[in-house]
Amino acid sequence: MLKYLMARNEDIPPGSAAVYWGYSSIVWFVIGTGLGAFNAAKLAFPDFVTGLEFLSFGHMRQVHVMAVIFGWISMAFGMTMMYMTPMLGNTRLWSEKLGVWNAFLWNVGLSLGLTVLWWGMNSGREYSDFPWFIDLYVLLFMTIPLGINVWMTIIHRRTQGIYITNWFFGAGTFMVSIVLLVGNLPEYFHLTGLTEAYLTWWNAHNILGLWITPVGAAIGYYTIPKITGNPLYSHRLGHLHFWSIVVFYSTPASHHLMSAPLPEWLKSFASVEGVLILVPAIAFVSNILMTMQGKWNMFVENLEVKFTVTGCLMAIPLNMQGGFQQTRAINWYIHGTGWIVAHAHLALLGFSTFVEVGAVYFGLQTIMRKKLWSLTLGNLHFWFLLVGFTTYWVSMTIAGLIQGAGKIYEVPYIDVVIAEHPYMIARWLGGSLVFMGNCVWLFNMWMTARAGTVIPAGRMAHELAYER
Amino acid sequence: MNMNFREYKLGSRFFALALGLSMCITLFMPSFDIGSVNATNIAMDKQLWAGHESGFSLDDPLLLGWHKPLKVLLKADPVSGQPMDATYAYVYEKGTPLPNGVLHPDNLGSVAKRLSIDKGHILESNKNTGTVFLVKMDDQKRYYIENASATLGWTPEGVLKTAGDENTQHAAAGKSLFVREGCWWCHTLLPEQTQDWQVFGAPPMLGDFNGESPTAFGSDRKAPDILHVASRNSSKEWMMLHFFNPRLVQPHSIMPRFDYLWGPVDANGQKIDFAKWRTEYNEYREGKRITPPEVPTYARNSEIRNLIDFVMNLK
C-alpha cells in the first residue's frame, strides 16, 4: 500500500485507500481490545503484572480508549467513507492519493499519540487526553483531510440528490473537526477551571454524539438496503434522524456533569435535550428494521446483515439508557459507576462496532473482489464479539448498580470493591473473548485477501455462496 | 448533457443555523455565567500550590514536575527571623510559570481581581526573579492573592531557607503525578451534589476551580473520591505503606502498587531491592512469614514524596 503514496492519483486503483483504511482499522481493533482486556485483568487481579510504570493501569487506560476511538472506530469510518461516498455518488473518490496519505498519516499520528500517552504525557482531560500538539495533528492531518475527500466526492457526485449516508458523512466529518477544534481550546489557549471542565465534557459528548453515533448509523443506512436489495423504508424518517441529531444531540454536553457546580439552567436544558435523543434513535432503528421486511432470513444467513442488524438492535437499549440515565431522577444513582462504563461500551463496542464490522466485511470483499475466506470463522467472530460484549455489559451494569447502592447507603467503599470482584473477573473474560474474536477476524481477512475466491464481474459478494 | 443538480442550499443553511444555535446555547451563553464567578479562597489556595498547569505543558513536557511552585509552612518571618503565626506561603522560584490568576487576573472574578491587584500587587509578580504569594483576607472577609515579594520583601530563597525542607510541600509536582499516573481514572475529585456528603465530604462550590488546570474531576469512580481525603486520613505513614503496596493496609484493595515511584534509593541512600521485597511479600502472602517486609522510607527527592505532599493538600 505504501507504494501508492508516491504514485500519481490516476495510477492508484480505485478502492486502494478503502482497503488501507480497512485493514488498519482491524489491526487497531485487535490492539485496542487487547489493551482493554489487559486493563480489565488488572482490575480483577491488581497484582497481575506489577511494578512496571509503563504497564500500570493508569498509563494504559487512556491508550485503550484512544486506540479504539481513533484507531478502530474512526478508521473504520474512514474505510466506509472511502468506498460508500463514491458509490453513492456514482463516481470515483475525489482523490485516491489523498485517501492513502490520509490513512498513512492517521496511522503515524495515532501511533505517535498513543506512544506519548503511554509515556504519561497527557492533558489530564478525559477523551481529549492527547497533549495539544497531537490534538492539532489529529485535526490538521487526520479529520480535516478526511472531510475534504468526502466533501469533494459529494460535490463531484453524478447523481441528482444526496443519499442519507452521505449527508451524515459530510456533516459528521465537518462536525468532528469543529468539535476537536473547540473542545481542545482549553489546551490551545490554556482555559482553566470550570471552563476547562465543561469544555472537556463538551468535547467528549460531541465526539460521541456528532461523530461516532451518527456516522455509525449512516453506515447502517447503506449496508442494509445494499445487501438485502430492499429500498430504504423511509427517506422522511432519515430526514427526521438527521435533523434531530443536529438539533438535539449537539446540546446536552453538561449532562455529563450533572453533579458538578455548573449553572443549573444549563444542566436542566441539557437533560431535556438528552431525553430527545430518543427521536433520532427511534427514527433510525425503526427505519432499518422496516427495511429488513421480507428479508429477515438474511439476518441468519448473511454475516454482514447479522452484524449490522445486531448493532442496530443494540441501539435500542443504548438510547433508552442514554435518554434517561442522564436525567436528575436517575443520574444521581448511577453517575460515575460501572453502569456508565457498560453504557459507553454498549455505544462503542455494541451498536457502533457491530454496524462497522458488517460494513468493513462487506466493503473489503466488494473492493478486493474476493469472497470472504471462511464463514465459519466469520460466525466465530460474531459470537465471540456478541458473547464477550454481553458478558462485559451485563457484569458492568450489575457492578454499577452495586456501586450506586453502596453510594446511597453509605457502605464503606472497600465493601463495594469486594462485592464487585466477581463482576470484574467476568468483565475481563468478556473483554478477552472480544479480543480473541478480533484475532480470528484479522486472520480471516488476511486469508480473504490472499486466498478468497475471486468474485466474478457483475456479481456482488453476498450473491456468492460461502465455501468454508 | 447539462444536468441540473440539487444544491441543497436550504439544507446547508439550516444546518449552519442549527449547529450555530446549538453552540450559542451550549458555549456562548454559559460563558457569561462561568466567567462571572469569583474565585473562593479554596480556588486561590489550589491554583497557588498547583501552579500554572499540571498536565502536559512545554515547561514540564514529560510531567516530571519541572518548574513547579512549592507550598511552605512558615513559622518565622523570613526577613526578620522573628517567630510569627504559622502561615502558608507559595514559592515560585526563578523560571516557574506564574499561576493563572496572576497571569490573567480576570480569572479571579471582579472582586478578587481588584483586591489582588490593589492590595496584593500581583501585577508586580515576576517569573524571571521569582515571587512568593500568600492568600489574604481583607477586613470584609474577602479573599485575595498577595504578592509577598512586593509587599513584604520576601524572596523565594529566603522563604525556603526559613521554612526548611520538612515544611516544604511539593504538591504541584505531585499533582502532575496524579495526572501522569492516571490516579484520576479511579479516584474522582468531585463529591457529588446528591449522596456524597457524609462519606466523601462537601461537594465543591462554583468558585472553587478558578485557575485550576486540569480540573481532572474523573468520571469512573472505581475507588473513593479523594477531594477531601486528607481530612479523613492525614497519616503520611499510612499513605507511604498504601502507595508502596495497597494490600499492606487494605487487603481487598484493587489499587495498583506505586512502588516504582520510590526511585532507586531509600531515605538513607541505600539501594532498594524490589525483587527481594516482592519475594518476601509473596512469602508473607503464602503464610511463610508472619509479618510483611518493611516498606523502605522514601528519599526526599523521590516522586512518591511529591505525590504524598499532593494528597496531603486534598483537604
Characterize the structure shown:
The complex is a heterodimer of chains A (468) and B (315). Helix content of chain A is 74%, strand content 0%. With 468 residues, chain A is mostly helical. Chain A is globular and about 65 Å long. The relative contact order of chain A is 0.10. Chain B has two domains: 129 residues, no CATH class; 137 residues, Cytochrome c-like domain (Cytochrome Bc1 Complex, Chain D, domain 2). In chain B, a hairpin with a 6-residue loop joins strand 1 and strand 2. The mean pLDDT of chain B is 95.
Describe the protein's topology:
The complex is a heterodimer of chains A (468) and B (315).
Chain A: H1 16-44, H2 57-88, H3 96-119, H4 132-155, H5 164-183, H6 185-188, H7 193-228, H8 235-248, H9 264-275, H10 278-291, H11 297-301, H12 303-325, H13 328-334, H14 338-368, H15 375-408, H16 413-451
Helix pairs in contact in A: 1-2, 1-3, 1-14, 1-16, 2-3, 2-4, 2-7, 2-14, 3-4, 4-5, 5-7, 7-12, 7-14, 8-10, 10-12, 12-14, 14-15, 15-16
Chain B: H1 9-35, H2 41-50, E1 70-76, E2 83-92, H3 100-103, H4 110-118, E3 131-137, E4 143-147, H5 148-151, H6 156-163, E5 168-169, H7 171-180, H8 197-200, H9 229-232, H10 236-244, H11 274-285, H12 303-312
Helix pairs in contact in B: 7-12
Order of helices and strands of chain B: HHEEHHEEHHEHHHHHH
CATH topology of the largest domain in chain B: Cytochrome Bc1 Complex, Chain D, domain 2
Helix segment tally of chain B: 12
What is the percentage of strand-forming residues of chain A?
under 5%
Largest interface: A-B, 80 and 83 residues
Assembly state of the chains shown: heterodimer
Second CATH tier, the architecture of chain A: Up-down Bundle
Sheet-strand content of chain B, in percent, reads 5-15%
Largest sheet of chain A: none
Instruction: Give the integer mean of the pLDDT values of chain B.
Output: 95
Average per-residue pLDDT of chain A, rounded, comes to 96
The gross shape of chain A turns out to be globular
Q: Any idea what the CATH superfamily of the largest domain in chain B is called?
A: Cytochrome c-like domain
- From the N-terminal CA to the C-terminal CA of chain B, the straight-line distance is 76 Å
CATH fold group of chain A? Cytochrome C Oxidase, Chain A
